Amino acid sequence: MDALIQIFIMIANTANMLVIIWFIIGLLFSFNVIGRDNTFFVAVHDAIARLFEPLLRPIRRFLPDTGAIDFSPMVLLLAIYAIIIVLQSIRPY
User: Fold this and answer.
1) Number of other CB atoms surrounding residue 72 within 10 Å
2) In b/e form, how buried is each residue of 10-40, taking b as 16+ CB within 10 angstroms?
3) Are 37 and 31 in contact (CB under 8 A)?
4) Using CA atoms, how far apart are residues 35 and 28, in angstroms rounded to an integer?
5) DSSP single-letter state for residue 36
6) Domain ranges, ordered by start, for the chain
7) pTM metric for this prediction
């Protein structure tokens, strides 16, 4: 059981890192540090966006529309951190 919980924790940590990478690449695009003609970063950004869009869509329905700022990735990060905390608390030492 401990190994299964550790695998879930590793998956959650990986998801956190991917959301952070997706957010940073999006910032780099919006401030024109990286152009949209860079196919590698566009492909990475789109792949991560497609991966997390099913999780972000329900969050966006509950959050108020704030215009250009999207807070749904931050809510997703908090939810993943909460899952990690719960998994670590039930893990036997």
Assistant:
1) 19
2) eebeebbeebeebbebbeebeeeebeeeeee
3) no
4) 8
5) T
6) 2-90
7) 0.86
